[in-house]
Design brief:
single chain, 157 residues, alpha/beta, 5 helices, binds 1,3,4-trihydroxy-5-OXO-cyclohexanecarboxylic acid
Length: 157
Amino acid sequence: MTAAATSHPRVLVIHGPNLNLLGSREPHIYGRQTLEDINASLTALGLRLEVSVDAFQSNHEGAIVDRIQQAAGAYAGIIINAAAYTHTSVAIRDALAALSIPVIEVHLSNIHQREPFRHASLMAAVVTGQILGLGAAGYRLALRALAEMIPAPVAVA
Ligand code: DQA
């Protein structure tokens, strides 16, 4: 008899421009945790939830579009903080709209309490849900939500 193996569903976390500076960037708004801290906490939570987590950060709009396109068929869900591109990028919005997997939009800060140009998210209408204003915990809540939405892994021989 062959032992059955299960492959855990994969979740992609996409971090947009300037989020590589977390920890030192406007800590009164974005907190003291670095991007490495956040990614490590998601990997650790993923182990408990039986979900594999890959993280990607880019300051470049086209690179983010490319990564979203490559996610089709490879990932069971996406968490995205498109950062400043949230408010400007039709290209990222369209790439997300082309997917058929759940997508959770996360923002560390509550964008509705900030400058008017941050109030609108071009992503909002095409994502499954949004988590705002809860700091780094928002990413972990997004991972928990995705883990509940993603179908159980299929056992393979
Ligand atoms: C942000 C909010 C955006 O307005 C800003 O440009 C960011 C971070 C957040 O996580 O609160 O870079 O997405």
